[in-house]
Structure of Protein phosphatase, Mg2+/Mn2+ dependent 1J:
Amino acid sequence: MLNRVRSAVAHLVSSGGAPPSRPKSPDLPNATSAPPAAPPQAPRSPPARAGSGGAAPARTVEARASFSRPTFLQLSPGGLRRADDHAGRAVQSPPDTGRRLPWSTGYAEVINAGKSRHNEDQACCEVVYVEGRRSVSGAPREPSRGQGLCFYYWGLFDGHAGGGAAEMASRLLHRHIREQLKDLVEILQDPLPPPLCLPSTPGAPGSSDSSQLVGPQSCWSSQKEVTHESLVVGAIENAFQLMDGQMARERRGQQVEGGCCALVVVYLLGKVYVANAGDSRAIIVRNGEVIPMSREFTPETERQRLQLLGFLKPELLGGEFTHLEFPRRVQPKELGQRMLYRDQNMTGWAYKKIELEDLRFPLVCGEGKKARVMATIGVTRGLGDHNLRVCSSTLPIKPFLSCFPEVRVYDLTQYEHCPDDVLVLGTDGLWDVTSDCEVAATVDRVLSAYEPNDPSRYTALAQALVLGARGTPRDRGWRLPNNKLGSGDDISVFVIPLGGPGSYS
Amino acid sequence: MLNRVRSAVAHLVSSGGAPPSRPKSPDLPNATSAPPAAPPQAPRSPPARAGSGGAAPARTVEARASFSRPTFLQLSPGGLRRADDHAGRAVQSPPDTGRRLPWSTGYAEVINAGKSRHNEDQACCEVVYVEGRRSVSGAPREPSRGQGLCFYYWGLFDGHAGGGAAEMASRLLHRHIREQLKDLVEILQDPLPPPLCLPSTPGAPGSSDSSQLVGPQSCWSSQKEVTHESLVVGAIENAFQLMDGQMARERRGQQVEGGCCALVVVYLLGKVYVANAGDSRAIIVRNGEVIPMSREFTPETERQRLQLLGFLKPELLGGEFTHLEFPRRVQPKELGQRMLYRDQNMTGWAYKKIELEDLRFPLVCGEGKKARVMATIGVTRGLGDHNLRVCSSTLPIKPFLSCFPEVRVYDLTQYEHCPDDVLVLGTDGLWDVTSDCEVAATVDRVLSAYEPNDPSRYTALAQALVLGARGTPRDRGWRLPNNKLGSGDDISVFVIPLGGPGSYS
């Protein structure tokens, strides 16, 4: 079975090939907010709709076989079974023997406590070589510039409503990034500012007569300056969009189920690019200090964007939802009374007289982990979700979900890093029960117990972080030392050392 | 004439009454960016359209008479003439004799160097008493809660395309705020959380049977907590919207010309609320340290909001503009080539193949002070502008302009302020040539030259700031000591002491 799983993961489809089908899994964490008092019957979590499995996944051997974990875990068939065991929740890491992850990156993961059938997180860690297309100027490539570029890549993908989107993203997103960077190989290695205009796509009709780049010097004096860094940011942004588009196309073949949050790190030419779409999180811990490298995209943090879209495109609300926010559901008996509300332009609250259409369910409702868009989903950015609909309705939710990441850039060359400086990536399973400062404290505690040049220290740290968020089984639950509940979610953590492994170029 | 001007300013219209008509003035600062190479013929500054004056204002005696400056300047007819003199550019402040502004607030202003006929900045400083409506619960008011509320109010309004909007806002915006606060008088003085639901408007049909507030205790457990502070923020936000709506209604009577940026400070119950819509700026200088209290809203800072609106509502672009951003205007000969661009979801840049519709003029173009929406206007939030259209076109610009402010809150009680701690408000005439740090240095230099209890020190500081931004006439221009050009714009500055005058309640 190992071979079958491995080959499923290794089946790298860069241009639309079909990954192996896998079962639906019932999906988002159960919301505990009260159900709406009136139509629409808002679901607490989105149903898995695509495919033939329906709501209750068939626990067949075939379905089981298509379950996969990251190849770098090198799991044996028995190891895969243990990784898939909700009762034991054994923490998984790459084996100590054999090839380490690039930069001696640490990784650990654990499956959820039963909220979905499999671990819906996925992870990827790769060194990716980008071969430039033939010289963008159309001229034969100069030998000195003929070299491609390497980037280091880490990705965490937290799936919901099924594991398909996360699995697909973990296989393909870095390939989309590579594709976007191909045109930039020469430009990024040229100290001159990027040309504003290039001849048409090499090889395309009409491109052969364009023998020269249209450089900045030929342009208006009022042109904007565009940096190399912003080209990499744009490449990552467009790669996310293309990945999402591929999922939209392939869902028709029922290959892609659900959606996923995506948190991605690209190291290229001295800079670390952290791209986040969803509620995973990245922080740098440097000299004990926390530097946030992402923010979460949820119905609460994106309330105004969502409301604006509902206001400008009321047809997306299907007559079932109101774009206004209320502190709680409005009840029919409150018609004519005045209730607190927020419109899309407001950060404060005011009173408004309740009218009939205010009785519709609010587009955005709930707080914290219970916040939902259209009473259905608790994250507002990510990949996939093209099949996601409001329960008991045909209303699609996707227009409100954005696939675009926010990209933050950290210049590794601007600071001398020591072996204890790390970039920590975690899915929400980690951050739901662990603060930034607690992570920083664990970084200090664990790394100081190892020699600075011991490459296993980062895996030990990732394991400690996962264990600390999972807790131990006690009193009919997974509990932390302070007796609070540990995370019952899938938990995945990368620990990327910033100063240890020497030269990264 | 003084009486006429004074009565014009004192003519406080709280519910739609008509202010005296005034002449159009040619308007926004001249943009110096190159004109577009192809249709639409984009204007450098919006034409004054409302009213019968046309593009060239008639310099009649009547028009002149309706020019006004803030009443608190107590200008004599001669003083008004000097304040209106572009050649002398005398700095104006309230007289040393007579009643001071509340909190001994300092104020100074100077007219522009000729870019518009009159000073299009306006200012207002008031103590406003808010009488509560009869008890919101519908029950007779308890004597102990029968007291109203006072708020302190400062407003700077930087007009463009005419002085009408700024003048109207300076007369009326605080009245709209008062109106919004009337319902909150009891609630804000009650230590309990605000009720989520109130009976219908007192006196309105059907309200008499609602004898009780629907307090939080009766609501679902998942209701949001709404703070008193957020009610004040909501009141200010809605007041801006209602002010803008009044301008929209009254423009038909040709009473309101142009638009204005609005920067407003409300002090209420221990907290300072700074609301900004436009490119004015507020900073606190506390113990020499700068605390930004606003941000500017320009085509650059609001690029993504503008592009998103153009993308979602392409009809607003009238087939003349593209929502995509390019580093410079695309030329017809570049069709089929690939040029750098940014879409509404992107912060980075990428290359795209130029198609026919990319030859349209970009919705957002230019950089810094030359940035423009629809090649017309350089600010993206404010009041008015309901008549503003793209030059040589009927395309309205207003849908892209937002009247909603961003409100920041500063809790005065959280820090012990000394007499040198001040809140500085300035129109862009100040900030175009003066950095936050330079303002902080001037605060230190000027205030230390006066006794801490000398109430004239804040006016002296405001004057120093205005003079420092205006410069002195030399080499055919107004120049700063470093020989750079001073600001040729209208300049207006409030200096609000945070720790001097003692109790503010």
Notes: Chain A has ten helices and 20 strands. The longest helix of chain A spans residues 228-250.
